[in-house]
Design goal:
Keywords: ATP-binding, Cytoplasm, Ligase, Nucleotide-binding, Pantothenate biosynthesis. By secondary structure, this protein is α/β, with parallel strands linked by helices. Helices cover 39% and strands 19% of the residues. The protein binds pantoate. The site of pantoate has 10 residues, from β2 and α6.
Length: 293
């Protein structure tokens, strides 16, 4: 595995691999890797045989009062994990490499960013789409893979790629969870043991909704109430939103369908956490927890 820091180096490495007839895959990350990221590498390898991972904590997607400075970073550890998982090339630029001057052009979502996480994180998705458009332009992968944990992000990236005719497939890999259901996230590192226990209420709420859906409940208000009640009962969990939306266009629903996604966000202490699930098709971790007792 090779580590490169500059755009010309990535282009040279990717160009060589493409010249050898290899299909290029990209897994964009902000580092502090966990099994969730590494599962995206596995997924990427299903349709590519030269895997590029980017590691870049993108300042453009953090608001002024957010955790850019505290965001966990450990490049040495990330490189070890990436190599072990078979990544071919890590691209870890610094801020000046990606943003040598204040950008003249950015990618501003016109729709779908005005809800869910977009409500409390103005400008966040503009930052995400801008950096992802840059990474896709730099690497020009045949396929890139994003995590379902950031569901709204994945929908917006797909739409951006369609709208801007960016070539290459965009795939979404399922959320990976700890055995007790907590969705893996680099931000879990901020949680104290007590906060981590409270944070389990997010996945427990989603499990309750998956079960209720399976048992025939279709009233979105009822389903959302079940989730919210579990989160509020945990104490110390400040619910930001509980919303059941259509997976395709993130529109709020009144009756849940097989394409409905339940999405939640909350603050536990000072840590903002998100989670989500398809009601009809939970990821393996949630499905296991939703099994009848
Ligand atoms: O999901 C993330 O880690 C980031 O938002 C991404 C897609 C790497 C862009 O910075």
């Amino acid at each position: 595995m090779k580590l490169v820091r500059t755009i010309p180096e990535v282009r040279a490495e990717v160009g060589r691999a493409r010249g050898d007839g290899r299909r290029i895959g990209l897994v964009p990350t902000m580092g502090f890797l966990h099994e969730g990221h590494l599962s995206l590498v596995d997924r990427c390898r299903d349709s590519a045989d030269f895997i590029v991972m980017s590691i870049f904590v993108n300042p453009l997607q953090f608001g002024p009062s957010e955790d850019l400075d505290e965001y966990p970073r450990d490049l040495e550890r990330d490189l070890a994990f990436a190599e072990e998982r078979g990544v071919d090339l890590v691209f870890a630029p610094d801020d000046r490499e990606l943003y040598p001057t204040e950008p003249t052009a950015v990618v501003t979502p016109k729709r779908l960013a005005d809800r869910l996480c977009g409500l409390s994180r103005p400008g966040h998705f503009e930052g995400v789409l801008t950096v992802v458009a840059k990474l896709l332009g730099i690497v020009q992968p045949d396929v890139s893979v994003f995590g379902q944990k950031d569901f709204q992000q994945a929908v917006l990236i797909r739409r951006m790629a369609e709208d801007l005719n960016i070539p290459g497939a965009i795939e979404v890999g399922p959320t990976v969870r700890e055995a007790d259901g907590l969705a893996m996230s680099s931000r879990n590192a901020y949680l104290s043991a007590e906060e981590r226990e409270r944070a389990l209420s997010l996945s427990r709420g989603l499990v309750a909704a998956v079960r209720a859906y399976r048992e025939g409940e279709r009233d979105v208000r009822q389903l959302e109430t079940q989730i919210r009640e579990r989160m509020e009962a945990a104490g110390g969990v400040a619910v930001e939103y509980v919303s059941i939306v259509s997976a395709d266009d993130l529109e709020p629903l009144s009756r849940a369908t097989d394409d409905a996604v339940a999405a939640v966000a909350a603050r536990v202490g000072s840590t903002r956490l998100i989670d989500n699930t398809y009601l009809a098709r939970p990821d393996a971790g949630l499905a296991r927890l939703a099994e009848p007792d």
